[in-house]
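User: Assemble these into one structure.

Assistant: Restating your components, then the assembled model:
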Amino acid sequence: MKERNPMHPLKKAARIAGAIYLSLVLIAPFAMLYVPGKLIVRGNAAATADNILAHETMFRLSIFGDLIGHVIFICLAIALYRLLSSVNNTWALLMVSFVLVSAAVGFLNALNNIAAVILFRGGEFLTVFDKPQRDALAMLFVRLHSQGEFISEIFWGVWLFPFGLLVFRSGFLPRLLGVWLIIACFAWIALSITAQFFPYNYETAFAWLQPAFFAEMAIMLWLLIRGAKVAPVPAATSLGNSGAQAPQL
Amino acid sequence: MTQKAKEWSPKAKARLAGVFEALEGFTSAWGQVTVLGQLIVVGNAAATAANILKHETLFRLGFASSLFGVVFHLAWAFLFYQLFRPVNRSVSFCALLVILVGCAIQAVTALLYLAPLLVLTAGSSLGALTQQQLQALAYMFLKLNGLAMDTNLVFFGLWCVLTGYLIFRSTFLPRILGVLLVIDGFGWMTFMSPPLGHYLFPIIAVACGLAEFPLQLWLLIFGVNNERWKAQVEGIERSNSGQVDRAGVEPAKRVAMRLPLFI
């Protein structure tokens, strides 16, 4: 259909989505795992305060990374929409909707960490509280932030269902990855429920569910390296569709 | 591709929307109204705190229920968007965006719902605060949860007004349902001023019962009229065809795409 084009548009859309995914995978662990793990001491407000004040830049970077991560998440959803809307527009739009709500929750949740920094630093207007009280309040906001992430986990899960379904039905991506993504959807939801009702088993649950979560890593690598498998004849219709749709988004 | 054959009929979508609407109504109301109403002692932070700690599992269930309500809410709002897109695509999309903002607020509300438990069971990390201070904090978060819920209702009201208009203009649902939903929507929008909203609440509750409940039943039982829905889709396509020619897409291809597939 378009011989002049060096790369099939579907393949190109897949590569772009993969690249955006990669940037998310690079940023998210820093903001969500590395920094909190290093600075936050569970159950000890004073030690956490010392850590965060000593490494304030790092903590602020993690807040920034958190925010950027959600911007990238929205871009990723749009890129995947471009790739997959030709398969089924309904599910593709539902996927984008879940991601948008997840990002909104994530943005607002970053406010909790910012509130914690304000309290730890203790400006003039906070002098009516003594330091242990300030630290305790700040710790509360740090905890609220991590609880907010448990809420986000539901959405990190549910968006994978339409995503997985679209991959499964696409015909240009491996069906196995689609199934894997849908399993990951239920794994995230299970993890979020564990966090609420059996908080002490959270680590165990995470370890057990880990294989499911690699689905996202797998689809990311597949999109980036293999792109979309485009067979000349059956792809003609999807090519027509995606070609007509992509600019209109 | 093959999914054309698998595409659900408008009637099935409408029924599914009714199911999700009922699920959302039940989970949200149970979490936000029943459970909290049972545990909160108005104006008494200490008694409220004692209640929450005594019924911790119930409280957590209430939280989870109101959180899952958000997912159901997204699902039915989305199906409504699909159903009413042929009536007016811009208004339908606008309604979807409004409800997405509402859902995001609803999800954040869930965090405020959970916060009291966090305060009350924090243990050593909040050791610097006295028992009374912790109870007051917990109570404050409960009040914030209520206020955030009110904010969500404003967006929900706006959605009701837009959707009511769409029902009124549609040919596949009774017009009276649209009129009632618009009135109901204006009712919810009075929560822009929470005191006014709470003052008018008995009236709003009646409007809600008269508008949302019949709509839900109608969707569950009758769904929408498949033929009329399709007729409306085709009507829109005909009236749009001039526009399409200007855009340089040949009509034959457009018919093949049926509804324009993008947002």
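Chain A is about 80% helix and 0% strand.
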